[in-house]
Automatic annotation (TrEMBL):
PANTHER family: PEROXISOMAL SARCOSINE OXIDASE. The lineage of its organism: Eukaryota, Fungi, Dikarya, Ascomycota, Pezizomycotina. This is FAD dependent oxidoreductase. Residues 334-353 are annotated as: Disordered. It comes from Terfezia boudieri ATCC MYA-4762. The keyword NAD does not apply. InterPro entries: FAD-dep_OxRdtase, FAD/NAD-bd_sf, MTOX. GO terms for molecular function: flavin adenine dinucleotide binding; L-pipecolate oxidase activity; proline dehydrogenase activity; sarcosine oxidase activity. Coiled coil: none annotated. Keywords: FAD, Flavoprotein, Oxidoreductase.
């Protein structure tokens, strides 16, 4: 992994609360990072009688049809190897369950379900390429288990006997099948279940946050594709230029466009857009009633996971190293660059209408996961498939910081496939860092980092991802069209 050095700085003037104050803030992106930042800035306006003008821009009317968080479901867990994220996950879960103020009701009306979370692994001789990747996965499971047992006592105030009933180690396949509740389905050979984690209806939750933003009265929403930054000769950024010729000016510009951020600013070596495969299966009302309370299942070795059915749909997916779509890109910010650069950018059915499927071998993998985890659905046709685009960083830490050399430019991205669960706490943390009010560990953990040596690419290696090789998605499609089979999955490496 490349070595990184912390850098950074702040702009703006002094505010009445002792923090930095801006007259106007332009936020690019209305996903998890963008909407929560806007909402928290608006709350800051009310708390400190500030009058910051807040403008949110997205390339699509809300909800964006290919936004990563506009989906049927997302896992909501506090189960992390890193105790800092585990603690933050507990804080987020508290608001999912019983939020107050603008977060009152977030977890109601089917937006949050606490049906449990099963995290398992395969046996040590599973044939996974790269002993290091297998070791990371095992470490991730057991450290997550230890963190949950400790933090639920220390931070959630539970006694150890109570925790022992809620967070249970699973020592063999029989014990795993016993908690999964899918008529003999399961995955892996050991792991644990946490009955205090669960999942959320992602699109419903995002609609909830959007409505809260609209109710504030001081947040303006615009639709337009950002193609440039309004940069002064001094290098200071004063807003953005849209494809239709409009300019939206602001004292501070926040880039929070998810996987599309890599096409706005040069994040080489710091973040990369990767595609993750998902598939959806129709279920009957009777089947949904039978399985709606099963736990989320994730096999850390393969990256394959299954969520309980809701609204007539059951989702199966893979959390892995992901695909690349490297294309020539003319960055919105031209500083230190001339002409296009090559970066991985999202390729969806909306950006590329000819692409309306996932790779064939991924369909085989997801089919295998269904047969293993919920056998009754094993042979049912997929109703639809999708590639969801992450913004990955090497350590899975977010990037929330001012960008050196670009006064007036702030970055909030790098969700690395796990930011959604922090929906009710993330915006407050972003705004605290933005306004210079958070001197704590997160400011350092999420800092912009200077590369100390040249790197070829970025892969998230925090132990939560399956796989060891990133493939180019377009090349894979071309090979499929030619009848060339490419072994892409972790599962196929076992054969």
């Amino acid at each position: 992994m490349e070595k990184l050095e912390s850098v950074g700085g702040v702009d703006g003037g002094a505010g009445v609360d002792g923090g930095i104050r801006y007259e106007s803030v332009v936020i690019v992106g209305s996903g998890v990072f963008g909407l929560t930042t806007a909402l928290s800035l608006s709350l800051h306006n009310s708390q400190y009688s500030s009058k910051t003008k807040i403008t949110v821009i997205d390339r699509h009317p809300f909800p964006a049809p290919d936004g990563s968080s506009i989906d049927s479901s997302r896992i909501v867990r506090a189960d992390y190897k890193d105790p800092l994220y585990a603690s933050l996950g507990l804080a987020a879960q508290a608001r999912w369950r019983a939020g107050t103020g603008v977060w009152d009701g977030l977890g109601s009306d089917g937006r949050y379900m606490e049906s449990g979370y099963v995290m398992v692994m395969d046996k040590e001789d599973a044939g996974i390429p790269g002993e290091e990747e297998l070791w990371r996965g095992r470490e991730y499971v057991w450290k997550s288990l230890d963190n949950m047992r400790e933090l639920l006592v220390r931070e959630a105030g539970m006694d150890r006997d109570e925790v022992a009933k809620k967070v249970v180690r699973l020592n063999n396949e029989e014990e795993i099948r016993g908690v999964c509740g899918t008529n003999g389905g399961g995955s892996g050979v050991e792991g644990y279940v946490n009955w205090l984690s669960g999942w959320a209806d992602a699109e419903k939750a995002m609609r909830f946050v959007r409505k809260r933003c609209e109710e504030r009265g001081d947040i303006e929403f615009l639709v337009g594709e950002v193609v440039s930054l309004v940069e002064m000769p001094s290098g200071e950024v004063k807003g953005v230029g849209l494809k239709d010729g409009r300019k939206v000016m602001g004292e501070l510009t926040v880039l929070a466009a998810g996987a599309w951020t890599t096409g706005l600013i040069d994040l080489e070596g710091r973040a990369v857009s990767t595609g993750q495969v998902m598939a959806y299966v129709k279920v009957t009302k009777e089947e949904e009633e039978q399985w709606k309370c099963i736990p989320v299942m994730l096999n850390i070795t393969t990256g394959l996971f299954l969520l309980p059915p809701r609204n007539g749909i059951c989702k199966v997916a893979r959390h892995g190293i992901g695909y690349l779509n490297t294309q020539p890109v003319k960055l919105a910010s031209g500083h230190k660059r001339s002409g296009p650069v090559h970066r991985s950018t999202p390729m969806t059915a909306h950006t590329t209408p000819s692409v309306s499927r996932i790779p064939a071998e991924d369909e085989v993998d997801l089919r295998r996961a269904l047969r293993e985890m919920l056998p009754a659905l094993g042979d049912r046709p997929f109703e639809s498939t999708r590639i969801c685009w992450y913004t990955d960083t090497p350590t899975a830490d977010f990037i929330v910081d001012y960008i050196p050399g670009s006064k007036g430019l702030f970055l909030a991205t790098g969700g690395s496939g796990h930011a959604f669960k922090f929906l009710p706490v993330l915006g407050d943390m972003i705004v605290d860092i933005m306004l210079g009010k958070d001197p704590g560990v997160w400011k350092n953990k999420w800092r912009w980092r200077k590369l100390l040596n040249t790197v070829e690419g970025v892969m998230t290696k925090d132990g939560s991802r399956a796989g060891s090789t990133q493939l180019e998605l377009q090349k894979l499609y071309e090979d499929e069209d030619k009848g060339i089979s490419v072994r892409t999955s972790v599962e196929k490496s076992r054969e």
